[in-house]
Design goal:
The chain is built from 15 helices and twelve strands. It is α/β, with parallel strands linked by helices and 394 residues long. A seven-stranded mixed beta sheet has the order 2-8-7-6-5-3-4, with helices on both faces. A three-stranded antiparallel beta sheet has the order 9-12-11. A two-stranded parallel ribbon has the order 1-10. Strand 6, helix 9 and strand 7 form a beta-alpha-beta unit. Helix 3 crosses helix 11, helix 5 packs across helix 6 and helix 5 packs across helix 10.
């Protein structure tokens, strides 16, 4: 038997996102790309900021000897210094390059963080609905996922989190702005969460780490802002990438930063740096490190995502759909008009609309739409959405 049984089981329940993306490729080949409305994958279609091309050409044309060699496992010190300056501005807490590691995207950063803090059997709380890969990342490092629901508006339910905490709890992962809901957790709710985690840490005699996954921090709407995690809670770790705000998902570049007053900081940073190496990443890509160092504070045109969100919300409302308008990211997570979200996604598929069922994110009865697509795709999907909702109500 070539493949492990464990991996076969994982494959059977793996990402609905990829399944629907692959189905979209099949449908486009059969019906033509213009006749398929693919909202399945959060794959940014906007170009990187104009400055990206300028920096890219300049670094390529003035490539010096040795710039592609190994560097410290945590990344180039000058890159980390520039990134730390930007994080300090965003978080309102001064951090230095010594508290920051460059990583292979946010996914790499999460795996590094979990590898550094988990012993086999330790528990990590994940809030539903959630990015499905979290469960696999936790398992990668010997941990156990413990799912806790958010409330009906997808806000933090601190009472439910408090009940889920045990002596085995070592971390809680939050994602704000959230994939798949677009929700942003309020400053007040984060303060309440910090109090819950602090009390539990004292009770159990351990540090419970708050891991904040923030690749959508700069993609927000309606003058919303993302509160500082570092101001809320000392035992916090921020992981993020440049995949979304710079439209560089294929380049796999991101970073991890710990609160400057986190418990046992020196030992933790040593563990994080070692994890970055022995997980096989070794270091983040050298060329991309140098590029993002020159792009701090840059982002894609978020007004385009705002326009697309408004277009999609308008046509969904017209179709009779119920949903919470997203405050950030580029997803909307509506209620399915029938109990079986997979069945409704199949009805959408009959109308050549590709969506992802909510159960793929741990919340059945909903479905996710990614609006990082051209305006025309959204506009042309209006009548197909109406037909799908009409068919569901018969």
């Amino acid at each position: 038997m070539a493949a492990a049984n464990k991996m076969k089981n994982f494959s059977q329940r793996s990402s609905w996102i990829r399944k629907m993306f692959e189905e979209g490729s099949r449908m486009k080949a059969k019906f033509g790309a213009d006749n398929v409305f693919d909202f399945s994958l959060g794959n940014p279609d906007l170009p990187p900021p104009e400055k990206f091309q300028e920096v890219l050409r300049n670094l390529a044309e003035h490539d010096a000897l040795g710039v592609h060699k190994y560097m410290p496992n945590g990344g180039f010190p000058f890159v980390r210094e520039k990134v730390a300056e930007q994080v300090s501005l965003e978080q309102g807490v001064r951090v230095s390059q010594n508290e920051l590691l460059m990583t292979c995207g946010a996914a790499g950063a999460i795996n590094v963080a979990l590898k550094a803090i988990l012993d086999p059997g330790d528990e990590v709380i994940v809030l539903a609905p959630y990015f499905v890969e979290y469960n696999f990342y936790i398992d990668n490092q010997g941990g156990v996922s413990k799912i806790v629901e958010t409330d009906e508006q997808f806000n933090l339910d601190c009472s439910a989190i408090k009940e889920a905490l045990t002596p085995k709890t070592k971390a809680l992962i939050i994602n704000s702005p959230n994939n798949p809901t677009g929700q942003i957790y309020s400053e007040q709710s984060l303060a309440e969460l910090a109090e819950v985690l602090t009390e539990a840490g004292k009770k159990f005699g351990t540090a419970i780490h708050l891991i904040s996954d923030e690749p959508y921090r700069k993609i927000v709407f309606d003058d919303c802002s993302v509160p500082s995690i570092f101001k809320a809670y000392t035992n916090s770790i921020i992981v993020t990438s440049y995949s979304k705000d710079l439209s560089l998902p294929g380049e796999r570049i991101g970073f991890l930063v710990v609160h400057p007053e986190i418990d046992d900081k020196i030992a933790l940073l040593e563990a994080l740096t070692l994890a970055n190496r022995i997980l096989g990443f070794v270091n983040a890509p050298a060329f991309m490190q140098r590029i993002v160092a020159e792009l701090q504070g840059e982002t894609v045109r978020t007004d385009i995502y705002t326009r697309r969100r408004d277009m999609l919300c308008a046509l969904l409302s017209d179709a009779g759909c119920r949903f919470q308008p997203p405050k950030g990211a580029f997803y909307i997570f509506p209620e399915a008009p029938i109990e079986d979200d997979v069945a409704f996604v199949a009805l959408l598929q009959e109308q050549h609309i590709l969506a992802v069922p909510g159960r793929g994110f741990g919340r059945p009865g909903y479905f996710r739409l990614a609006f990082c697509v051209e305006d025309e795709v959204i506009a042309k999907s209006a009548e197909p959405f109406k037909r799908a909702f009409s068919a569901a109500m018969k």
